[in-house]
Amino acid sequence: MKVAVTGAMSYSGRYLTRLLLDAGNQVVNLSNRTSPIALAPLRKSEASSMTTYALKFDEDSLSKALEGCDVVYCTYWIRFADGENTHEKAVERVSTLFDTARKVGVKRIVYSSHTRTSTTNKHVYLSNKAFAEEALKNSGIPSYGIVRPCGIFGDTPQESILFNNAAYVMKRTPLFLLPNDGQARFQPIHVRDMAELMFQVGQNSSENLDKDACGPDCPTALELFTGLKKSIGAYGIVLAPGFLSTRHITLATQPLNWLTKDILLDTDDLDLMYDGHTTANNPDDPDIQGRRSVFEWMDEVGDTLGKEYISSFTRYYRSN
Question: Is the per-residue pLDDT at 319 higher than 70?
């Protein structure tokens, strides 16, 4: 089967591509990257020989790239709005992708969205994800699948930037502060489980599916970062004093942003968590419990985390 993956050389796309190739699929990479952000779990020969088209959101370019494809896996989105690259623009772009896919005969689209989306959500990140979902459902594609992560961690520090950079701060400061009372919950998924879910949803040829991409652990922020402190052997205090807002915390990290030319924490990201949008829509989904535990993962990789700061801008936006 011939399939297309947006960002087959990027983060979750590499792991999804590994599963697709192992199953005998021909993979088309839709990406503006000239080289992968990392090679594993792909082999060098696979990365260099893969058919790649620049990800241009016009019908002619997409028609050429998607010709003969049976399934399209779409992980494309914008994290930080910047100039013309807004979340509203991302909706327009994926809508064009969905419509063009239908016109050229694609049978199924699997879209990576987010937990707790709604077109009326006050967070534009989530409301526009919901509009993208509506565009997919209304595109006329024969069948679709939607998977819903709220955060992803991976095999290496570079693939677990939130955890790595939190560990980096913990190892260098005596106090790690959290907003409000620290009771907001977060339910991340391991990148290999994320890829496996997308692969499985893509294999279903006719049923429309909507699946949470969440791990088995749903800790509070206080529980999560206390666990991280223990896993990395840091000696400071993790504290949620109750009177600090998400904005207070992001302002406190501003000096590190200036130093690294990055954004350690974005207020919008914290607000998503503290407004209750980073847990599974369906916590009773039996598939969730079979996935990798974030606490067990932290214990396994703790000695590798926080050795150096990893810039999300450099890794995902400035590298080729």
Answer: no
